[in-house]
Amino acid sequence: MRLPVLAAAVAGALALGAAPSQATILTVFDSIPAGTTSFNATVTAAGGTANADTLPTSGSFGTALDRGDYTITRNNGGSISLSTYGTMTGGVININPSGSSKGIGAIGSGITFTFDSPINAIGFEVGDWGTCCWPSALYISFDDGTPIQVGNSLNFTDVLFNGKYEVFVAAFDDSGSFSKIQFWGDGFGEFLVAGGTIRYALIDQGSLPPVGVPEPASLALLGAGLVGLGMIRRRRTTA
């Protein structure tokens, strides 16, 4: 009576082992120097080339800031002005959170990067975030897909790096390539800026470390289970 249970367990393990590797989503949340290093290293390991574009530190650009490879617009259609903040490496855009609800309900207060050539990795700098109005989260969405939370603050110390409220955030999705990337925060009532140096890349599909792949020991146990199942079947056949 136990044979069907064992067979079902082995069949499930076989299905897991035979399934193609799933798409991997990775995020980075760190100080600007450490986050930049992590982004560049991840891109290189995944077969891509990291591009970097430092935004001007001042200027008004109407409703679209054209940076050659990509254009930045406000999700609410408003105008874009650049200024400086702290030690961030380039100009920043003020995107104070607002909206109807937390999460996707705050998307209208964010910005959109529209790329001429698709990418699947992006990172940039965020300032004066998480100093009030908790909980406060940051999100990145590729091509209107499910928002990826790249940061979450519950108190003052969550985002304090080297005495500064300046962080680097990034998201990677190796399931494909994307032309539209949106970023926003949902800490209603707080000040929030984003920009600095925008980093982006196209990495190979399926190149990030896969999630849920069986460890070698698990594969060995699977092999032992198959041998045991074969022996049970042979005994029943010859009985």
| Percent range for β-strand residues | 25-35%
Query: Radius of gyration, rounded?
Result: 23 Å
Query: Assembly type of the shown chains?
Result: single chain
Instruction: Please state the average pLDDT score.
Output: 84
- Which geometry do the CA atoms define? globular
Short description:
The protein has 239 residues and is an alpha+beta fold.
How does this structure look, described?
By secondary structure, this protein is an alpha+beta fold. Helix content is 22%, strand content 33%. It is built from 3 helices and 14 strands. Strands 1, 2, 7, 9, 12 and 14 form a 6-stranded antiparallel β-sheet that branches. Strands 4-5-8-13-10-11 form a 6-stranded antiparallel β-sheet, with no helix packed on it. A two-stranded antiparallel sheet has the order 3-6. Helix 1 (3-18) packs antiparallel against helix 3 (216-238). The longest helix is centred in the C-terminal third of the chain and has 23 residues, at 216-238. It is globular. The two termini are 16 Å apart. 35% of the residues are buried.
